Amino acid sequence: MFSTRTRLLCGLGLILGAALGISAWLTLRSLDRMVLASARQMAGDKAVLCSRYIPVDQPTFEPWLRGAFTAAQQQFLFTLFDATGHRLGSTTNLSYEIPFNPQVLDLQDPHMDIFQDFVTEPEPMTVAYYPVYRVDGRHIVTGWAQTCVPLRRWQNEVRPLRQILLTTYGTAWLAVMGFASWMLAFWIRSLDVVAESARQLGASTFATQRLFVPHRAPELRPLITSVNALLDRLSGVHRQQQQFLADASHELRTPLTILRGEIEVALRRERPGDEYREILTSNCDELERLSRLVDNLLTLARADAGQVLNRRETIDLAVVCREVVDRLETVAADRQVALHLDARGTTTLNGDPVALDRVIFNLVENAVRYSPPQEAVQIMVEGDSQQATIQVRDAGRGIAPEHQPRLFDRFYRVDVSRSRDQGGAGLGLAIVKTLVEAHGGRIEVASQLGKGSTFTVRLPASA
To answer: The whole model's pTM is what?
Structure first.
């Protein structure tokens, strides 16, 4: 395959060559028309002039006429014919003669116009006829003066101009192509600089190093800027993945360390059955925590791969909220927390029922977990033809303002020790935000210390 540079040069060469060729052809045609017009003008003028030297009453071609006209110097042939077209004589400066054109005899009033003709044999020349006439009440033609002007004289005169013209066009083509080749080479050098800076990017440098932007190639600036912006986004994703892996490793290490420690302690000596049962119960709790963590990690991994939603169907958010409340009634009762559900308006939309169930479950479970006893968690669902809104309000201790911007970050916990005691890994709200945004919605939080928190989910009706 030809390179872009070769294709551009070939295309430019063909277009420029065609344009210059057409221009040269038109110019040469104009020169040819000028040569022909000049030769015709000369032939006509000589025919009129020569006819006036001929006796009117009895036209003859005397020997002195051969030298009277400077035909040899001016390179034209003069021939005299009688009224019927018979040749009477001619100059001897040419080795051939041009026969009389009988169409001249058909002219209605020949003295008014010069009859022009063009012949190609024995060489291209223009021919002019003018009558020798007397006026006797009317114009009576007594003879015809024929003047032939070969075109080679005029062509010889314009030949240097033709050569200059062709040389100029050829030089212009070479100059333009050379300049275009130089500009393309300069542009290719700029691309080489960018390619070299790209080759220097590696796994250890792409997070900090960016492509060089050549100052002398502004047309490359938008492309390189876009690539650098892409590298910034990839670097951000890479840092997020590195942090995600570090946090996931840390979270997985804790239950695994507990499991290993308890099992090693249990294996040091023989123990009663009650102690083994207690150790196995603790192991089961850690395994349950580990299972939830792995499940959350898989959910986030699928979200990063764009596969967080399994299916879409028409669902009623009020029904989903009622099912979640029913499942959490026992947990809320154990904590002496009441659950109040209020549904208003049209709460039907198109979405993934499993994902939306998980969103509502996580929000309500968090509200129950952080609500003090003898308080209530309010769940309000309302909607219209544009969007559906879910609000989960608790009366807990609230969230400090400095924590709210990072509340939906992965593995972020407001109270690390309390969250770990309650089995949290800081992934619940991150999963909620991911699932809500996958439906084209958004989640907001409003909280005051000592007054509780309100989480609001807004979903488009066509989610």
So the answer is: 0.51
